[in-house]
Amino acid sequence: MLSKIAGFEVRYQLFSPTFIAVFAIFFLLAFGGITIDNIQIGGGGATNINSPNALTINLLIFSIFGAIIPTALLSSGVLRDQSFKTEEMFYSRPIRKLDFVLGRFVGGYIATALAFASVPLAFLIGSQMPWLDQELIGPTNLGHFLYLYATLGLVNMWVVGTILFTVANFTRSTIMTYATFVGLLVLYFVGLGLAQNAPDLRETIALIDPFGLNTFSEVTRYWTVSEQNNQVMAFDGLFMQNRLLWIGIGLALLVLNIATFRFRKASTGGGRSKPATGPAMAAPAAISDITLPRATTSTGTATQIQQFFARLNFEVKGVVLNVAFWILLVLGLLNTVPGFFFGGEVYGTANYPVTRVFINLINGAYSIIPIVIVIYYAAELMWRERRVGFSEITEATPTPSWVFISTKFLAMCVVIISLVVVAILASIASQAIKGYSVFELDQYFVRSVFELVIPPVMLAALAIFFQVLTNNRWLGMAVMLVFFIITLVMAQIGFDHNLYQYGSIPAAPWSDMNRYGHFFGISVLFSVYWGFWALLLLVLAYQLWNRGAPQPILKRLAGLFGGFSPATASLAAVAIIGAGLTGGWIFYNTNVLNEYISGPDHRTLRADYERQYLYLDDLPQPTITDTSYDVDIYPEDRRYTARGSYVLENKTDGPIDTLWISYGEYTTVVSQSLEGASLATSDEPFYIYSFALDAPMQPGETRIFDFAIAHNNPGFRNSGNITTVNYNGTFFNNGESMPNIGFNQGWRLTDRQQRRRDGLEPIPRAFPLEDETHWNESAFGKTSDYVSFRTIVSTSVGQTAIAPGYLERDWVEGDRHYFEYIMDRPILNFYSWLSADYQLAERTRNGIDLQVFYHEPHAWNVERMLTASEDALAYFSEHFSPYQYRQFRILEFPAYASFAQSFPNTIPFSEAIGFIADLRDPDDIDYVYYVTAHEAAHQWWAHQVMSANVQGGTMLIETFAQYSALMLMRQEYGEDNMRRFLKYELDRYLSARGSEAIEEQPLYRVENQQYIHYRKGAVIMYALQDYLGEDVVNHVMARLIEERAYSSRPYATTLDFLRILREEAGPEHEQMIHDFFERIVLFDLKVTDATATQREDGRWDLVMDIEAHKFAADGEGVETEEDIDYMVDIGVFTRDLDGAIQGSDHVLYMDKHRINETTMRIELIVDQEPVYAGIDPYNKLIDRNSDDNLSRVTIE
Amino acid sequence: MLEIKGLSKTYGNKVRALDNVDLSIPKGMFGLLGPNGAGKSTLMRTIATLQAPDAGTLTFGDIDILKDPQALRATLGYLPQDFGVYPRMSARAMLDHLAVLKGLSNGKERKAVVTSLLEQTNLAQHANKAVASFSGGMRQRFGIAQALLGDPQLIIVDEPTAGLDPEERNRFHNLLSEIGENVAVILSTHIVEDVSDLCPNMAIMNGGKIVAKGSPGDLIAALDGKVWARTIAKSELAGLRSKYNIISERLTVGQVKIHVIADTNPGEGFEPIAADLEDVYFSTIRQGQTASAAAA
Questions:
Q1: Would you tell me which residues 18-37 of chain B have a C-beta closer than 8 angstroms to some C-beta of chain A?
Q2: How many CB atoms lie within 10 A of CB A705?
Q3: For residue B15, what is the DSSP state?
């Protein structure tokens, strides 16, 4: 019987349109995912497109979306008899309930499993497609497919299937099943968010994640490219526990289902109310005198309006009184509230709960849920009457159709707005709980309207339209899904104009400094434009909607045009004309005032540029030695103009007869002239020009180059509307529009896949370290060395304009405020201009002016920044070399970017970092201090010692800035703080290795790889000074500065540093220096056992068994073990180090031991009872499993 | 009042649900009788503006129903064959809502109408209970209550008594006949007694066609003296079937009672009996079947 029922179920499902549609959709999605370059899931970098890693990610991601498969194929088995009203027939048959439930379940599960097999199948077939980049295709291992399909696909379908089956069985409600599905999604996202922000919880989250995605992240966190390409997660440890746990939970649920199953009818009344039996007939056959109640009926406008409100009230109540709505609200809260408390932390330190950040968090949390809700509710509301079987009654009433459609639409709007309002209330409440009382209701209002309400409302109109058009609930939902996919793919392949990307409002980031700025107008315009389209869709939906029995699509379409009434025709006309006018205005802005180039076209353009002009790169060109600029910033027009003059010098050995000048994109070149030369060629699309010199420039000769440019931002663009000039908060540098010499390197395509597609040779990320021909070029480019700099910059009265150099004078002329800045010593040819309405905080120490220019409400950490600056300048001046300027300025700029950048005596610092950090808890890591120190250190590392244009360049700049900041931070906060900080850095280094695009380099050959020069650099330098001593390393630094400060012939290289380091450190540290800088070396250190016994003298004998391995890794991450012989810290503590933040009372013992065996026993005597003992307990060495270094001591 | 001319409807699967239907329905109760699948519901839904026919015309008084469905809806009361209800909504709230949809815009009037209808349908004491919790009979009464909202001139009730116990049915009939005095009421059913008890006019529908129409009395009169009955053993049935025009076979206590149509007494133990509407119905249906069998 069981197998018969199961067999029936499988056959029934396999031939159902649902199965075929689900299989096809998932096959196509997965196939597209692997074969379309721009939407590849799981590949990236040097990892193969078809790597086991990519397959794993595909299976995991699709199993999340695939939760819809058991919803459709498995739970439906339980609900089906209800929807087909055959339940009585089945339930009354003499079928044993075990057979029935289990049969249905097994059948449904087999169908589900078969449907999900579409994903690995599509991946397998897709990876054989000839157009894929063959360099990124690895061997196919069918065993991996089976293993991953079983452990991920089948288990996830099992987990989701049993959960949804249970919910369906107990509630007999589609909506509850659906809500459970959304709930599972939310749980996953909450887990993900927590895992990102609370590393301590990662293991727990990995264990309980029903989908295994967090488990995967945790297990493969530090996997290298090589491991990603060749390995799958082994069935052990966390992964096995997670899978077994969920298989078990699924089994338990199934047993529960069987044990409690009753054949029963679903009650439409929600299960609680039992039929009112009552006196069915008070007077059974009494023939009463029926007088039909008289009433005047009307169909006039007033009545229609009354019907509209009655219907609106009815629909809204229908939504709001349904438990699903409240579940969604709760899910929405679950999805946002954790973010308010744990989100957006930097090094574990939270921000002040400023409204800007909180709305961003809501935005992030609400990226998918509204879409799900719109799709669901469109189907639910449009089919509500038919579903409950009431449609024939309502549709036979004289209420006009527009009342029905518009109120359904508005009910959806109510759902959307409710969700947003609840999120905002939760946000405000969270702000209050965090003791923050600046509730920016205006920001909440305007941003939630544009960012959270209007986009889903537009989608709601579309979803209703599709529901009406297809006249089939499921088809309507499927068409919406297809719409999303098409939209996504269109954007990827170059059809990315917002005019036809339905409902898209270009990103409009908020900045506290600039508020909505110019984005406000753009958002309003697009909202109105799409509003007209939505109106048209609703009118069309009204026209296509037929009451009563559904009519075929074609028939309704055929009758569409004849069916317009004057009212609907004029509404449609208003919508079309409105969309035409606003669309025309958008087009005028995006395509007439500005040039519209799609993403792929833009890449092609850049490839063309490279093909045409790359040869210029080898051409001898003069060097810029002197610069001066008159810059006028017009914040309210978001534009600036500049006139300037360069002195160019021929520093080459031969004469130069042609000068090539290039400008950044969107620059308007007003005039340009070179002394003794005439303009020879102009290539405006590529912003490159050449001058023919009447007489060639001889070696050593100088010439004046004059220019005038304008940088305008007329109207708005299709994308990229974040501009450097803003109403409040302008920040641009000379790379944007000021002329430069020769080929513009910034225009080259750097992505290797892109380059291959466009037929370009791969470019090395950096020139080889030993290539001396590039030692005379700065890492910033070869067109200039150190230059002199002066500028007069004007801005609107009320704003302060700032550039590097010292303020000589400022004056007001009309509504313009002029500032003249002069730098009194040569600087790198890299500087910025800023303008905003600033508050100024300042102090003077040792003759140096320290200043912070900030946005008034962001005063929290200004004093901290000043202190950090003061400490930094003092420490670096004492240990490295004197500070070269008389002034040190930090300037806040809008949150359109979140970095800080060091220009000579001038440090622009984003409002998104530091300024809003909440440092009130002294236990939190003070990253404001750290970032300030890091940027201050760049006044030495970059602005004193500049690296040559070869491998390792960024080590001298970024790694040394990291080191400098670390030393300062340790001085301020102590050793334990450093341990916590460096754990973040170690984690980020190890995590990022797997995303390497080409190959990992050892530190001294770093090719601008951030995870190496920042993250690994910090860990290595900290360990280095731990081995050698801070003084020794500082002395190396000082010597490097002495040798190479302001040197441009040659610039400094890591070879200089290593030479000095070896001299200072002595030969006994040779192995360590070699491992740290010149190789990729990893350790695996762990305590396998630690036991202690109390001695008779009251002290304690401690025996530690340790394991120690050392590996050398190649660029792909393939490790080879080698003999270990290292001095490694052995530490004994009276407490766990996790909560240890300050002081050293808990340290019983800490010393370096020589570790030269893979297993060793260490015996110590300590004064107090040891609680924890460890090898390298502070994680100074790079160890992929840094958690097993420390172990609890067993007391005997 | 309601004039139906040449109404035809073919579904996508080639089923001719309505085949050139002509009917004229006057004021009063009009019974539409037919077996399941005869096309009754299609006809009802078409009249109720819920389905568009392929061909034909429909007028009610001055209203051209196909051109101006809204005008008909304003004066229509419709009780569909099968209807569900929203969970949680009370009978009063639901009726009030429907009253608004019917255009009863005056609040006081509407309240009075709703209250009165609830009383008339004997639902007053359950007015504040959810319709979803009603028994089958109560639910049907609620259905008729909503159909009566807004003083309709045309009332369509589609299979209203299916599933009702005899008492409920009786009550329902009384209600309907009271209403039927002043307006046109179309009662669609497959239960012969519903029609014979209530309707001065009727039609029989089969295979999408109107196969008979008139008053029940006239239709019965036409069969007078032509119906013969005999009680036989089950084993004899096969032989007699080929010999006579049997219109009904009914099993009683192991024996079969058959009715045949014949102009003269076929003998062989057949006794004459008085024709009733059921004989009319079965003979009409049988004719249709033999006719279509012959055509095929």
A1: none
A2: 22
A3: -
Q: What is the DSSP letter of A956?
A: I
* Cβ separation B110–A295 shorter than 8 A: yes
Task: Test A395 with B50 for CB contact under 8 angstroms.
Answer: yes
Which of A713-717's residues contact partners 24+ apart within 8 Å by CB, and which partners?
A: A713/A518, A713/A638, A713/A639, A713/A666, A714/A589, A714/A593, A714/A594, A715/A588, A715/A589, A715/A590, A715/A593, A715/A594, A716/A506, A716/A518, A716/A521, A716/A522, A716/A589, A716/A590, A716/A594, A717/A589, A717/A590, A717/A594, A717/A596
Q: For residues B147 and B164, what is the distance between their CA atoms, to the nearest angstrom?
A: 18
User: In Å, what is the CA distance from A1047 to each residue of A826, A946, A1043, B286?
Assistant: 11, 7, 8, 113
CB pairs under 8 A between A and B: 178
Residue A791 and residue A820 in contact, taking contact as beta carbons nearer than 8 Å: yes
- Write the residue in A277, A388, A396 that is nearest to B50 by C-beta: A396
Q: Which of residues 373-402 of A touch B (CB under 8 A)?
A: 387-390, 392-400
Residues from chain B that touch A389, judged by Cβ atoms under 8 A, are 82-85
Task: Give the C-alpha separation, A232 to A149, whole Å.
Answer: 12
Nearest-angstrom CA–CA distance, A307 and B70: 14
Q: What letters, b where the CB count within 10 A reaches 16 and e where it falls short, cover B121-159?
A: bbbbebbebbbbbbbebbbbbbbbbbbbbbbbbbbbbbb
Of residues A225, A162, A159, A219, the one with CA closest to residue A195? A219
Q: What tokens does A1040 get?
A: 């490097």
The span from the CA of A421 to the CA of A366, in Å, is 12
The pair of structure tokens assigned to A167 is 């919910």
Spatial distance between the Cα atoms of A205 and A203, rounded to a whole number of angstroms: 5
A278 and B126 within 8 Å at the Cβ level: the answer is: yes
Which residues of chain B are within 8 Å of residue A390 when distances are taken between CB atoms? 83-86
**Would the CB atoms of A275 and B104 count as touching at under 8 Å?**
no
The sign one gets for the Cα dihedral A56, A57, A58, A62 is positive
Closest CA to A838 of A1150, A357, A538, A513: A513
Residue closest to A392 by CA, chosen among B44, B162, B12: B44
Quick one: CA dihedral A964, A969, A975, A979, positive or negative? negative
Three-state SS string over A1062-1087 comes to HHHHCHHHHHHHHHHHHCEEEEEEEE
Residue in this structure with the two tokens 């009979």, named with its chain if needed: B137
DSSP state of A545: -
Contact A133, A38 (CB under 8 A): no
Interface list for B 82-111 with A (CB within 8 A):
82-88, 97-106, 109-110
Edge-first strand order for the sheet with A730-733 is A730-733, A832-836, A800-802
Shortest CA distance to A1162 belongs to which of A1064, A1092, A1094? A1092
A735 touches chain B (CB under 8 A): no
Which B residues, 237 through 296, put their C-beta within 8 Å of a C-beta on chain A?
A: none
CB-nearest partner of A273 from B52, B74, B132: B132
Residue A851: which of A898, A907, A903 has the closest Cα? A907
Closest CA in chain B for residue A304: B103
* pLDDT tens series, chain B, 296 aa: 899 999 999 887 778 889 999 999 998 899 999 888 888 889 999 999 998 898 999 999 999 999 888 899 999 999 988 888 887 789 999 999 999 999 988 888 899 999 988 988 888 899 999 888 888 888 888 998 899 888 889 999 988 877 777 887 887 788 788 887 788 999 998 888 888 878 899 999 988 999 889 998 888 888 888 888 888 888 888 888 778 888 888 887 778 888 888 888 887 788 888 888 888 888 888 776 554 444 43
Residue B36: how many CA atoms within 13 Å on its side-chain side?
A: 2
Residues of A in contact with B50 (CB under 8 A): 392, 395-396, 547-549
